[in-house]
Amino acid sequence: MSVETPNMFSDEENILLQTALFKQVSPAEAEELIPHLKRAVFDKGEYIFSEGDTDHRMYLLERGRVKLIRTSADDRVHLLSIHAPGEVLGEIPVFDPHGGPRTASAVAMSHGTRVVWLEHDALFSWLDEHPRVAIDMLQVMANRQRANNERISDLVFMDVPARLAKTLLNLGSRFGEPVEQGLKVPHDLTQEELAQLVGSSRETVNKALMDFSNRGWIARDGRSIIIFQPGMLIRRSRR
C-alpha cells in the first residue's frame, strides 16, 4: 500500500464529485474537504480495512474493484459484495454512534486499486457547515439498505438459477464491456466466490451456468462471462 498526502491531488481532481454520496455537493463545498482527504493505492489481494477494525474512516473507491468479505470462526470466507469506482466503503462505523468494530473486510481485486478516505471528525465538522448534504447521504444509505433487503428476499423466495441470472445481469450492468458477440462481464471471481455471491454451493451454481450455456444464453470465458441473451436472463430471474 502507498499513501498520498492531500497536496498530491490535482486542482481539478475531486473524487467526492464522482460519488453518489456527494452528487449534490458544489465544487466549492467539496474543495473544503480536500485538505482532509488521504489517498492510498493497493495491490491485488491487499486489505483496505479488516473485519474487527475500530477506525472511524469512510472510504471512497476511486479506481479498481473491491470485494467485501466476512470470515467465520472456523476461517471460512464468504463474499458479501463487489464495489465499483464511485462507491462508498466502510461507512457504517462513521455513522454508528457507538463506532466499530467493522463487520467485514475490504480487499482489492486488482493491482492499482485506489481509494480516498475521510476521518469521522473531519466529515462531521463539514456536515455541520452543510447540513443539507446529510439528506443526500441518507438517500444513498437508504438505497443500499433497500438493496440488502432485496438480496435477503431473493435468498428466501428465488431458486438458484433465478438468483444466478439476476447476479449476472447486475454484474453486467456494472462491469460489462460490449463485444461483437454480446456483453462481456469480466467478474474476476473464482467459482467459489461466484457461488458465494449467488448464495449457493459451487456445484449448484456450476450446474445452472452449464444450463444457461447449453441454452445459448451465455458462454464462459475464464473469469469472464459473455451474455448473449440478456432478455432470457431477465425472464429467468423473474420466475
From TrEMBL:
Gene3D superfamilies: Jelly Rolls, Winged helix-like DNA-binding domain superfamily/Winged helix DNA-binding domain. Residues 158-231 form the HTH crp-type domain. Signal peptide: none annotated. It comes from the Bacteria. Keywords: DNA-binding, Transcription, Transcription regulation. SUPFAM superfamilies: cAMP-binding domain-like, Winged helix' DNA-binding domain. Residues 21-110 form the Cyclic nucleotide-binding domain. InterPro entries: cNMP-bd_dom, cNMP-bd_dom_sf, Env_Response_Regulators, HTH_CRP, RmlC-like_jellyroll, WH-like_DNA-bd_sf, WH_DNA-bd_sf. This is Crp/Fnr family transcriptional regulator. It comes from Bifidobacterium saguini.
